[in-house]
Design brief:
With about 325 residues, the protein is α/β, with parallel strands linked by helices. The chain contains 10 helices and 9 strands. The strands form 2 sheets. It has a 7-stranded parallel β-sheet, sandwiched between helices.
Length: about 325
């Protein structure tokens, strides 16, 4: 039997594919984008355990093909469309189709295959307009999603839980905080990258870093003060949830449990990569210390899981990965 991972080309999906293959799973990766050389190189030690499929999850014929030719007992549904700004205005209907119809198709596939477990990759975007506070945001609190992305994520959480109840397979939705790290790059359905992506790229290219909380180009608008989790820790948690005997909750915040501030990032990248060039200093009126959000991670701890990387070790690992794969993209 195999584990199906949708969205296996993207940052999170690619890390899940690698993590599960390393754990001994037979993995089927389904994405609308065909795997590139980087995708293959990243899982090279476990390449015999990975099958790559290309197709649109909105297309029922793709689901028919998957169910006919592959034996699957677990599903991790990552594939999503994250529309920002004008993309939400101009292509909102496509986002709804992928994020809702695509989820319904995968849940129906789980029913058809009599899958044992279904993990849905949601987002902290479901908290939407919930006011920032000194209290950590908990999974059972009232939600106020605003954008199409957050709305469709929350709706998909509810669909996931209900399908599991109706058809007898175990489900969990993971509300991911800001992920960053290995395999992060622009895809047709995700166009805004993390600020840590920008900084690590400048470090390995020998370019100076100005400690501004807001990026440029593909990272513009990213700011700190939010919880940032290294994507390998996210993938490890998903592997853990697939392998434990039972999953006690329907929803899990997937985060570090603390915000990341700009001065902490400057200190961490200096320690992780002493050759880095820092130009200027952290603004006195640091905006990353305003509108801070905390995410309760007690449910992760309840199933005996904690992130293995702190910021310094994550930056060391990520910079080493960039250098090993000669990944110097801006």
């Amino acid at each position: 039997m195999a584990t199906l991972v949708t969205g296996g080309y993207g940052t999170i999906g690619a890390n899940i594919v690698r993590e599960l293959a390393a754990r001994g799973h037979q993995v089927i990766s389904l994405d609308i984008v065909s795997p590139d050389d980087l995708s293959h190189k990243d899982v090279e030690p476990w390449s015999k355990q990975v099958t790559w499929l290309t197709g649109d999850i909105v297309n029922p014929m793709i689901m028919e093909m998957v169910s006919t030719f592959h034996k699957i007992d677990k599903i991790v549904h990552v594939a999503t469309y994250t529309p920002y700004g004008d993309i939400e205005k101009n292509n909102g209907r496509r986002a709804v189709a992928i994020n809702l119809e695509g989820t319904a198709n995968l849940l129906e596939l789980a029913h058809r295959l009599a899958a044992k477990r279904f993990i849905y990759i949601s987002s902290i975007a479901v908290y939407g307009g919930t006011p920032p506070s000194e209290q950590r945001l908990q999974e059972d609190m009232p939600l106020k999603p605003r954008g199409i992305y957050g709305i469709t994520k929350y709706a998909s959480e509810l669909l996931t839980q209900r399908f599991g109840e109706l058809y007898g397979f175990e489900t969990a939705s993971l509300r991911l905080s800001q992920n960053w790290g290995t395999m992060e790059r622009i895809t047709p359905y995700h166009s805004r990258l993390s600020l840590l992506y920008e900084w690590a790229g400048k470090a390995v290219r020998g370019e100076p870093i100005e400690p501004s909380p807001f990026g440029k180009g593909v990272t513009e608008g990213r700011s700190f003060g939010q919880d940032h989790i290294y994507v390998k820790d996210t993938a490890s948690f998903i592997g853990h949830l697939l392998d434990i005997p039972t999953v006690p909750h329907h929803v899990y915040n997937t985060a570090t449990g603390r915000p990341l501030y700009l001065d902490e990032m400057v200190s961490a990248i200096r320690e992780a990569y002493p050759e880095v060039k820092i130009v200027g200093s952290v603004p006195k009126d640091d905006p990353t210390r305003k509108n801070v959000r905390w995410y309760d991670v007690s449910r992760m701890q309840e199933v005996d899981f904690a992130p293995q990387y702190d910021l310094v070790s994550a930056l060391k690992d990520y910079i080493n990965w960039r250098q090993t794969f000669n990944f110097m993209d801006v």
